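Annotated sample (chain length 148).
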Amino acid sequence: MTEVVTFFGLPDREENPLMAKYSREQRDRAVDLYIKYEHSAADVIHELGYPSKGALLSWYADRLEEERTGVPSRRGERYRRYSDEQKQAAVDHYLEYGRRPGRTMRMLGYPKSKELLMAWIDELAPGRRKLRHGPVPEELKREAVCVQ
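Output written by the structure step:
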């Protein structure tokens, strides 16, 4: 059985964050069983352990629409929320204005999470992100202040 790809940190998801929750094969298998079991969503969900009834009915409607029009469904494909230019602008702002993610997010109005901004910085400017390494030891503080 094909592994269900979720949004909660499975390795496949980390490699491609734009990946759909269920593969095309998983959706097709569920719809095939739905038809085979005389449109019993409960039996399909019981056998496969996925999807929700609403998702199954939506997938079935997509299948009917595909058969009617001959055009494959685009369900499961994700759109990109931010363009490459927006990502680069955010990284440039971060690097130019003090390397403060909160400042960049406030000034530009995006992205909505620091984690996403940090991922962009690691992707577009590797090694340039400010890293926190915990508290500075007292000895280093004294050495920095003392003039010799």
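Annotation: The mean pLDDT is 82.
Annotation: The longest helix spans residues 53-69.
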